[in-house]
Amino acid sequence: MKMQRKNFTLFELLISVGLLVILAVVLLRTLVLTTDYWKYSAEQSEVYNDAKMIMAQLNSDISNMLYRRSVSQATTTSEVAIPLYSSHLNNVTYTWMRNPFYGSNATFGWCIGMVTRTDMQIAQSGTAGSVSTTDSMNLDHSNICKVVYVFYPPALSGNAPFNSSNNIPGANNGVLVRGYVNENVNSTGLESGSHYLSGGRSLQNFYEGAMPSYNTATAVQMADGIIEFRLDPYSYNSSSRTFSAVSTTSNDGMSNVDVLRLTLTMMPVEKLNEYRDMVNDNSVSAAEREAYFNKHSRRFTRTYWVNRMAF
Hints:
By secondary structure, this protein is an alpha+beta fold.
């Protein structure tokens, strides 16, 4: 007996095609999600690496920092013999992007100035910012120098005070710059051969005035994509085991600093540019901006103990 061959019906073919389409969509969606997740992970990994590098460099500079108060003049007990400065950056002249969670005054520039030992030899005479990497025993060179960190918040409009010759590619994207200052800084408010407080100049003016004029030999971009950067000074009371904020308004630096507390908020630069567009777009709600910020930004904190030198 001859067996009759049974063919697929149109309905069965449609079901098969439908199942294949559903499977293809699921696989494509999985591929897209995997790609997006890989990109997101790569971006966040870069943020974590930049934060780790910043914290490591700060740890190196602070742990090698020279800082102490002078007791040579009893009438000026607040005088700092080897000064330290860490406070808001006042010469931000452009409109900057703010952190949505900390109010209108939460995201601003920051300036840190200290005397520390470094792995480079800095010329103490000659042109401003001159650096020697030689192993010379010349007394005009020393690895003890003034190091300055300056954070310029992301620009909404206008530009940070760096030009193309400064080799700071992320100047307008929330940039942290580290550099050196020698005694012959010659920039706005600073004359050649000036010292910290000559002519009543404050440490704030000294460090803030020097940074924008740095050349490529001394100014190094550490990272961009930074929304918030601050290094708040505190003193520690061992009896009560409490911390109290240290005043940063003194012209001659900060006294009795025991702790510097870092607050660092970062975002991938590409996401920062997208967030900037959202901030400038009035049609985007505050909730949407906040959700985007929460998803892509990362906040880091760290405490550095300061070893004050005793006489």
